[in-house]
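Request: When convenient, would you put together a sequence paired with its structure tokens?
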Amino acid sequence: MDGILNIFSYVGWVLLAIMILVFVHELGHFLLAKLFKMRVEKFSVGFPPKLIGKKVGETEYVLGLTPLGGYVKIVGMVDESMDAETMAAEPQPWEFRSKPVWQRIVVIVAGVVFNMILAAMVFVTLKATYGENYVPSLGGVAVADSSIAWEMGLRTGDEILAINDREVTERAGLQAVERSLIESPLVVRVRREGEVQSFSGPSDMITRLNRSNGRLGISYDPAVVGEVTEGSPAASIGMLPGDHFRAIGADSIAYWSDITAYFAEFEGGPTSIRFVRPDSISAVPAGAAMLGRVAEGTIYQSVVEPEASDDRYILGVRQILRTRQYDLGPAVVAGLKDTWTNTRVIANSLKRVFTGQENFRENVGGPIMIARVTKEAADAGPPFFWNIVAMLSITLAIINILPIPALDGGHLVFLIYEGIVRKEPSLKVRMVMQQIGMVVLLAFMVFVIFNDILKL
């Protein structure tokens, strides 16, 4: 029963995401067609067979059983319906084909534009509602052994100055710039022991990231306490936000990931904790031994017994994390910047995959992969789910504008041709190209579904 419920939860979240994206995309076509007084016979979210439908005025609004897309049937347009009979008749004033080329172009690109608007609205709303979390820059990074970053030449303790000449000053900045990892060449500039050095990334970065579950191998996690849970072992020895870990047991602690690694192998019992308390905190931890002073503050050592929780042990501390809040104006600017950055990254990723720079099979995902990613995002919370929706909306926009028959980009190519030569391509050519496009898209969909299954 739990397995069945888990499957339904995956399906539910991905259906919600797809329905939002398809509705917004088709709404763009619908509203602009209505604006230019074109007759719209059907507005469908989902493909046949029809689940429910209701006709209002001249338009039937439909919810289809196959949730892999949708369509708006505009009279006088060569589309999925392949209605050759209507197209062979004399054009009527309310038909798509009777309108000026520029109006038809606007209607065709409206779906893509609406998807981009949706993504921008999501990013702006996320900035305005949740702000932006970041960890202040408090030193160098931790580099995992045998990771992509390690193979590039980066080492623990390196202070990252810039990635592809983009300055990095804090964790949020590093995460944002990591979106540029697909750029080729990738150049990371660091400061190591006072010397500035540069390192280049692999040419097949996307494939390498997929093989490592998206891990570059860089952690930007200073071992500074941001929050102490009331009643926790850490609270019992008087630890406070701002304390900086130096050692647990016999292990030196330089990064927050070192704490996680220590307790991954911890078998229970009392252990010593050594930490530095900055001079800005005047309180003295009760029962702690003062070991001396350093430039950052006073060194203390205490003995604590970590608390068992499920299959691990915890101290009851959380990493230092700050939130940058945005008013509406700055939120709009930051959200639009995120939209542009993600659009550039997604477009560049698709280009690298489809031009052979990256392993095609490893980097192409279908409905199963989308369901998994969407479910994981939904489990992490609303900001993560809506971030995935925005990313998928951008991806849908980019794919739809490609010059492939049956997609918006294919229709756009014919319209641009008509606008240049002042003559519409023959109906036969458009019908044949539409059919070819449908076959190609269907074959691609079958491929990605089987590819997803093989990668499970």
User: Anything to note?
Assistant: The radius of gyration is 28 Å. The CA atoms of residues 153 and 199 lie 6 Å apart. Residues 1-5 have pLDDT under 50 and may be disordered. The longest strand covers residues 40-56.
